[in-house]
Amino acid sequence: MEHRPVRVGLIGAGGIAGGRHMPTMRELDGRLEVVAVADVDADRARAFAETWQIPHSYGSVSELLAVEEFDLAVVCTPPGAHRDAIVACLQAGVHVWCEKPPVLSLAEYDEIAALERDGGPYASYVFQHRFGSGAARLREHIAAGTLGRPLVAVCHTLWYRGHSYYEPEWRGRWTSEGGGPTMGHGIHQFDLALSLLGEWDEIRALTGTLDRDIETEDVSMAAVRLESGAMLSVVNSILSPRETSYLRFDFTDATVELTHLYGYDDSSWRWTPASHVAEDVAASWPPSENIASSHAAQLRVLLDAIEAGVRPPSSGVDGRRSLEFVAGLYASAFTGRPVHRADLTPDNPFYHALNGASVTEEAHA
Question: What is the pTM of this model?
Fold first, then answer.
């Protein structure tokens, strides 16, 4: 059965919209059609529409929703504006694909999830590293147990962002960005790690603001015990001139490593069998097709889900996992105590604000 193209409304006309999302959607031309763009700066929206030959532009989300009919909103605003845009679109019956980080708190995330309905609309989030063939193949092995039990894992996001990166007023602030490299950079890597290894149970963390003039951290470190019993080391930094993203998974029968920067293909993976594993068995482990991690790889899966009327990956409970990890890391770092996943309930201040700001104080501010 032939489907009509999914109609898309783009929200936010900044760098990520033009640098990543429009090229991605052009790559999938025929499966979708961008019908309009909205931005709080109407002139920027108009110029963006002219550049990308988008038929209509608007100066607000409310105007966009009042005039246009579309199936999917792609949200590319700064993080502090995610919640309002997602809520408005879901209430209008429109699916959402939102850039990371999802929102600024677990409370906001759960408020959004309560607006979803069986069959849609759903809100899903950009975690494109899950969708490369290397990750998909490793996920199959973990489910089948062919590599043995997961025991030890490493997840390091060692990136560099200079002082000028934080010149935009919204960056590096709790109320507008929600956190530092834990929230905005490392989240891609530990989302992939947790999507492979499962839920975490306990986290012990430190954060520091060592060199950048910002409210949030510029580096964080965490030791994590997973529900499976495996242990995970996580480092998130924007202070590292030689940038790398490195993930390592040690199973009883193999080590699997991923080294890349902002995206990977199968050449970025290394599969090393333990000495007791036969060579012919190990030779069957890597994937047989090379699909790079990318926005396009995730968007294809999302469009399939919309057309089938089913929940897409990286939404609901599956999309919440990484934000919950961020909340746990900050809670441990701020309190100086280990934090269990079960601790992050609505009566916990870190459920309402990732820096644990008092809800009562905010209400009376």
Answer: 0.95
CATH class in words for 6-125: alpha beta
Sheet containing 72-75: give its strands across.
56-58, 32-38, 6-11, 72-75, 95-98, 123-125
CATH 3.30.360.10 domain residues, the chain: 129-290
Q: Give SS3 for 316.
A: helix
DSSP code string of 129-151: GGGSHHHHHHHHHHHHTTT--EE
DSSP for 250-264, please give it.
EESSEEEEEEESS--
Domain boundaries 129-290, CATH class: alpha beta
What are the structure tokens assigned to 271, written together? 């599969």
- pLDDT tens-digit readout, 93-103: 999 999 999 99
Q: What is the pLDDT of residues 273-319, one digit of tens each?
A: 999 999 999 999 999 999 999 999 999 999 999 999 999 999 999 99
Distance CA 22, CA 12 (A): 11
Beta carbons of 120 and 286 less than 8 angstroms apart: no
What distance in Å separates the CA atoms of residue 82 and residue 103, rounded to the nearest whole number?
A: 6
Q: Could you give the angle at the alpha carbon of 331 between the alpha carbons of 326 and 337, nearest 5°?
A: 130
Backbone angles phi, psi at 137, to 5 degrees: -65, -45
Average pLDDT value for residue range 32-53? 98
Of 347, 343, 350, the C-alpha closest to 327 is 350
Query: CA quadruple 307, 126, 292, 197: dihedral positive or negative?
Result: negative
CB 100 within 8 A of CB 293: no
* Token digits of residue 205: 């963390």
CA distance 10 to 53: 13
The proportion of the chain whose per-residue pLDDT surpasses 70, expressed as a percent, equals 97
Q: Which residue has the tokens 């890391």?
A: 329
Confirm if 213 and 180 have CB atoms less than 8 A apart.
Answer: no
| Cβ count within 10 A of residue 334 | 16
Domain with CATH 3.40.50.720 in the chain: 6-125
- Chain position carrying tokens 């059965």: 1
Other Cβ atoms within 10 Å of 219 Cβ, number: 22
